[in-house]
Amino acid sequence: MHLRNLLSRSLAFAALSVPLLASATGGSALPRPVAGEAVAPVESSAIGAAIEQQSICVGSTVVSAGELGDVLYYRSSPGEHGEVSVGYYAFFSEERPWGNNWLTWTVLPALAVDLVYTHGLLFGPGLQRVAYGKGDVEGFRIVYRVGADGGLAVEHGVADRGDHSEVRLDRAELLSVDPARPTVYSRWWSHQLGGQGAGPDDLVHRRCYGAGAIRPLPPEVALDFRLDRRARPARVVPAAALLGQPASTRQGDQGLVALRPSVAL
After folding, report:
1. Is 159 exposed, middle or buried, given 0-12, 13-18 or 19+ CB atoms closer than 10 A?
2. Of 2, 26, 148, 160, which is most buried by a Cβ count within 10 Å?
3. 254 or 70, which is more confident?
């Protein structure tokens, strides 16, 4: 009887330990840029230089899992009225429900989410990897007014809320944490960057990117992380263009007409 009780306890401990071990480990994925690597072309070298000099910060009001990458990648698109839309891609190593949130405080809900969303019940990738790809990529977009001297002035931004719906961030919101550097931040364990209402003392983490850490998005990174089907607020060019693929063309009544690619999202 004693041996049976010991065996039962051992099995129960193993059943609990294996999922906890799996939830505490797992693959991570961040793009690792190499110094001097080739970068994607931008619409204008002057605009590109201004974008790469414009410091941007990414933060969070909650502690969450996942390492934030060293580079903030971007694509840009000029507007019709002297503005430029810049789509930024922030890379996190993983998206998991551990951190300063009710899922973690109650343990079992976070464990259940992790086993299905991240790990697929210990076998193969979880739902997050299957649906979106490796790592976690959050996109946001900022529209700048371009001055006569080539400088950029923030007008507004767009990012995702925790439920993946888009939210418009006005100039005051983007500059509420730091009046000199636009800041986007998350209020959710899943890293969406459409947080609102925070002040300078409300962020538990903030990383600022500047010259050398803001780079044009290479097509190979876009393909590797399947950015044609994720991080939608950052989309300022057709999905195929992110992957370095030309738009298809057809012969119309008035010459060649470029067709915007159709991508299932």
Report:
1. buried
2. 160
3. 70
Structure letter (DSSP) for residue 40 = -
- The whole-chain average pLDDT of the chain stands at 75
In angstroms, what is the C-alpha Rg of the chain? Answer: 22
- Cβ distance 57 to 182 under 8 Å? yes
Under 8 Å between Cβ of 95 and 66: yes
DSSP secondary structure string for all residues of 218-244: PHHHHHHTTGGGS-GGG--S-HHHHTT
Are 154 and 142 in contact, with CB atoms under 8 Å apart?
yes
Determine contact, residues 194/167, Cβ cutoff 8 Å. yes
* pLDDT recorded at residue 24: 38
**Residue for token pair 């009710």:** 102
Q: Return all residues near 93 (Cβ < 8 A) that are at least 6 apart.
A: 28, 29, 30, 66, 67, 69, 135, 136
Q: 242 φ, ψ to 5°?
A: -60, -35
User: Does the predicted model carry a pTM greater than 0.70?
Assistant: yes
User: Over 70: is that where the pLDDT of 126 sits?
Assistant: no
- The encoded tokens of residue 201 equal 């003392």
- CA 232 remoteness from chain centre: 9
More confident call, 257 vs 92: 92
